[in-house]
Structure formats: structure tokens, C-alpha cells
Amino acid sequence: MWARQWGYRIADLVKDNRETLIELDRQIGDADHGENLDRGFCAVAEYLDAHADPHAEDVLRGIGMTLISNVGGAAGPLYGSAFIRMADVANDELTPATLAAMLDRAVAAIQGRGHAQAHEKTMLDVWLPVSDAVNTAVDEGADLVASAQLMTETAHTAAQNTIPMVATKGRASYLGERTIGHLDPGAASTQLILQALRECVS
Ligand code: ADP
Ligand code: MG
To answer: How far apart are CA 54 and CA 118, in angstroms?
Structure first.
């Protein structure tokens, strides 16, 4: 089932990119992002092994709760609440409308908890343009594969677009203009989370 597959796939991708995320966070933060997320998604994989939840909704809620209780730092509660809110609109069959609604809920959760706006050099700078692009495409009739493809393409561009931004939220904001020229670690991990979802769509 797609939601379980998604959780396992994120765990693999985060493990493979652990050092990259640590390095990105070393440049403009405290070098713990890769470690935090790897710990969190290992716990997610253990949660999935232990709970044979048949419904996507329960799986996403379980992933969110697991992240909140296992990930320190800013990203844990932000990703955790995104998964919990995505659970509210998830269905066992992933449709374009479900995907669009999930992205919209993730944005609402991240903004509700972190109070960031666009262009503050955070993970929101990926979730927001991705949600906008996918929601527009789905309204215009895009199918699931095209929507998921657009999701990862937009995520890539949006993550790269954080490089010239000045961080004004979170720990990186302490460095002010010295954050210019660096990719935001949360933008990079969001790209992995969305890449993993893309791989669950055939
Ligand atoms: P910490 O900054 O506490 O060490 P992490 O290193 O795990 O936490 O996560 C850092 C990432 O969290 C940043 O790269 C940024 O994308 C994201 N982030 C931080 N604060 C916010 C916020 N208020 N809203 C959205 N994202 C945020
Ligand atoms: Mg950090």
C-alpha cells in the first residue's frame, strides 16, 4: 500500500543522504538535521514493521506521531504535524485530488506550527510552490503520474531557489546574510520526502 511504501522509502532515502543533510545543516545550522531525520525515519520503519495498519490514514498519522516523539530540533514537529494533517485527507487509493489535498494540508500544518512565510529560506519554500503547482495542475485535469512528476520537478527547482535566500526563521536566521549561497537543509529533506512519494506512484 502506498502510504506504508512511502514511509519505508523515505527511511531509505534519508539514510542514503544522511551525511549530505548533516553537511548542509553544518553550513547554516547546527549539523544535526541528517542525524535527527535518520533517527526519526528509522523509528518510522520500526513503527511500520510493528503495525500492520491497513488504511493510509492510520499509517500517515502513525508516521507523524512517531516523528514528533523521535525527532529533536525544529524539523520533527513540523514534519510530524504535516503527516498528521495529511492523514485527514488521505485515501487508500492515491488519486490526483488526494495528492493535491495532502500537499495543501502539509503547507497548512507547517505554517500553523512554524509561522514561516514564503522566502524565509525554510522547508516551506519547497512545500508551498509544490502545493500550488500540483493543485493548479490537478484542477486542470492532470493525472496521477503527471502530478507526481510535476511535484518532484517543482521540489527540485524550489529547493535550489532557497540558495540565494537570506534565512529569517529558525536557527539559520542567527547567521543572517551569511546564509546566502547555501541550500536550506529542510528544503533538501523535503525534496527527499517528495521524491519518495513520487517513487510510490506508478
Ligand atoms: P534545528 O534548526 O532545531 O537544529 P533541524 O536542523 O532538524 O532543526 O531543521 C532545520 C530545518 O527546519 C531548516 O532547514 C528549515 O527548513 C526548517 N525550519 C526551521 N524553522 C522553521 C519554521 N519556523 N518553519 C518552517 N521550517 C522551519
Ligand atoms: Mg539543525
So the answer is: 36
pLDDT value of residue 72: 83
More confident residue, 96 or 202: 96
Reported for 178-182, long-range contacts at CB under 8 A and 24+ positions apart, including other chains, are: 178/28, 179/28, 179/121, 182/24, 182/27, 182/28
Q: Which residues surround ligand 2, an ion (CB under 5 A)?
A: 25, 29-30, 32-33, 73
Work out how many domains the chain is built from and give that number.
Answer: 1
Outline where the chain has alpha helix (H). Answer: 2-16, 18-28, 33-50, 56-70, 75-87, 96-114, 124-139, 144-161, 185-199
Q: Which residues line ligand 1 (CB under 6 A)?
A: 25, 29-30, 32-33, 36, 73-75, 78, 110, 114-116, 122-124, 169-171, 184-187
Looking at the whole model, is its pTM more than 0.90? yes
Domain that holds residue 171: 2-200
What does the mean pLDDT of the chain come to? 97
Q: Is-contact 68 47, C-beta < 8 A? A: no
* 132: CATH: 1.25.40.340
Which amino acid, residue 142?
A: A
How far is ligand 1, taken at its centre, from the CA of residue 46, in Å?
24
